[in-house]
């Protein structure tokens, strides 16, 4: 009987393929990175062929490294980044690169729809906030700025759709990826005709929508030989990386949230029906027909810690090289040895604009309250506290909409710093649990694959595959301190937003 499951995560900077056994233990893994192409300041693209090659390579390599017999593979299931769009011709050849979520070329379209109120109405039906990340606004830009490509495009698809078309010759998109396009009604699970009317297209320009448990067999013969798989291996279409990170973290129960801080970050909870926010602060994406993921992403997670290290941590980088150590470990010592609250120094972590809960690409960062008593260690700790305030801002919006959150499953690179995790715990005034598996989107894809292939009847049956690692409880004195500082943080954003937007306009020119 087949005993191995493969989860593939098509991420922003790399693709990972991981072989799991039935208990959720990792048998083998492979990854391949690829670059982001930026031909203009606001453009962020990738080569679809490079990503397809990464999927094929990592799939083949994970099987080889694990010495896995293809007959022992039950299924291959997919996780993928959201908000990507590619125009393809009738032969399935790309007319554009893959325009990814970080692309901001359509910022003026998003701003216009935010101001005229149409964006909020579209969001209320689709669950995708009004922001240039949304393929809806990317397609508006393409229509007006590259009309020949727009006119000649046979389909507009995501990177996962491109991979599945290459494997099977069919254009399909799962409800989860579709629900992050801004063009899909999450209440009736169909393409939104009113939105398509705004774009001047119909459903034939988009892929057929399918459940996240939809499966296919008979992989393309050439790819079958390249990967070493059998043609009758089951492929499960899967869902988006954010939704599957929740599933792979055990955060699909009432009262449980998932918090991720890697390059960027996110806070998400599962809900049993679609829900949108009257203020448009959070997204709502589909996991399955009876599980919806509500939450928000931040642009500014670990990437701004790296910015701080690269620009202000020269001494720590040099010392780390001399000691054959890690520069982040030295910076983390500043965090560990500095009092919570950073002596009243507050950081607004908006170096790359911000998504949730403000959805404002023109926000900018700031240190507030600097005095001559502040030293490097205060600036270091204030930076990670600012990221935690940003995450808490999303959690507060989520709690208003759905449920009280009693515990948070944390994952991502920030969990390597115990004090950072404890700070998030104190800022959110909620117990935080870190589990030993850092590959939650791949594990989530496998769990969904188990549901799709009938190995389990309910996703909750997969909970034992997630192994808890450490539990952080709230330090009440610090939680009270952070409540005061969080109010100042919120007030600072409200008062400084016009000024920050003016500076962004100056910078953009």
Biggest sheet details: 7 strands, mixed
Count of distinct structural domains: 2
Order of strands side by side in the largest beta sheet? 17-18-16-15-21-22-23
The fraction of residues assigned to DSSP E strands is 15-25%
Broad CATH class of the largest domain: Alpha Beta
Radius of gyration: 22 Å
Which structural class matches the secondary elements? alpha+beta
Per CATH, which architecture of the largest domain? 2-Layer Sandwich
Count of helix runs: 17
CATH superfamily of the largest domain: ATPase, nucleotide binding domain
CATH fold assignment of the largest domain? Nucleotidyltransferase, domain 5
What does this 3D model show about the protein?
- The protein is built from 17 helices and 23 strands.
- The strands form seven sheets. The protein has a seven-stranded mixed sheet, with helices on both faces.
- The mean pLDDT is 95.
- With 509 residues, the protein is an alpha+beta fold.
- It is 40% helix and 21% strand.
Quick structural overview:
The chain is an alpha+beta fold.
Write the layout of secondary structure elements.
Elements: E1 4-10, E2 14-21, E3 26-33, E4 45-46, H1 48-65, E5 73-80, E6 86-88, E7 98-99, H2 107-116, H3 118-126, H4 135-145, H5 147-152, E8 155-157, H6 159-168, E9 172-174, H7 175-178, E10 184-185, E11 190-191, H8 193-199, E12 208-210, E13 215-216, H9 221-227, E14 234-240, H10 241-247, E15 256-261, E16 265-271, E17 283-288, E18 291-298, H11 302-312, H12 314-323, H13 327-336, E19 346-348, E20 366-368, H14 376-401, E21 407-411, H15 418-428, E22 431-435, H16 440-452, E23 468-472, H17 476-508
Parallel strand pairs: 1-5, 5-14, 9-12, 15-21, 21-22
Antiparallel strand pairs: 1-2, 2-3, 4-7, 6-8, 10-11, 13-14, 15-16, 16-18, 17-18, 19-20, 22-23
Helix pairs in contact: 1-6, 10-16, 11-12, 12-13, 13-14, 14-15, 15-17
